[in-house]
Design brief:
Elements: H1 9-12, E1 13-17, H2 23-30, H3 33-39, H4 46-58, E2 63-69, E3 72-82, E4 85-92, H5 101-112, E5 118-123, H6 127-135, E6 139-146, E7 155-162
Antiparallel strand pairs: 1-2, 2-3, 3-4, 5-7, 6-7
């Protein structure tokens, strides 16, 4: 796995709406221990994952996209409302880290979603994700201690914003 983005990704990475048939592969990605460590997340149970994505797929205020690399599902990127703000988030299969896929997918999503400002939250220890967001124009608004929940570990978290 190279740490340099592949220039061919600009043509190989594309987005499409998440489909119910994507959920088993998405759940497999969510169970990866290293991905959860990096994101300071706790994987959901299969039932909780299914219920959450059933809600997401019904919600017209959520833009949920599958990230395809040459036709293969390698992650997701989403735009969603929470606490009066519009957030973005993404998850890339660990096998595809370090290839520029998250940056390319986020740029594609930003072309599709009009609301600004957009926000993102990321564990400050997740330097790769911070770099993705900053390459796409997000800037750190604040750093705070975020409490643990059923989905997230307690961690120092950066809140980033994209204004324009």
């Amino acid at each position: 796995m190279s740490n340099e983005p592949d220039p061919a990704l600009s043509t190989l990475v594309r987005l499409r709406n998440v489909e119910r048939d994507d959920l088993p592969e998405m759940y497999r990605m969510e169970l990866d221990p290293e991905s959860n460590r990096m994101a300071a997340t706790i994987p959901r149970t299969a039932a909780a994952f299914e219920a959450r994505w059933a809600d997401v797929l019904r919600d017209p205020s959520v833009t949920a996209k599958a990230i395809l690399l040459g036709g293969v599902l390698v992650g997701t990127v989403c735009c969603f409302p929470r606490d009066g703000r519009t957030y973005v988030g993404y998850w890339i299969d660990r096998e595809h880290w370090g290839q520029g896929i998250a940056s390319r997918a986020l740029r594609l999503l930003l072309l599709e979603v009009a609301p600004r400002p957009l926000y993102a939250r990321v564990a400050t220890s997740n330097t790769a994700s911070l770099r993705v967001l900053q390459k796409c124009g997000f800037v750190v608004e604040c750093v705070q201690l975020s409490p643990a929940s059923d989905r997230f570990l307690e961690c120092e978290e950066a809140v980033l914003v994209l204004l324009g």
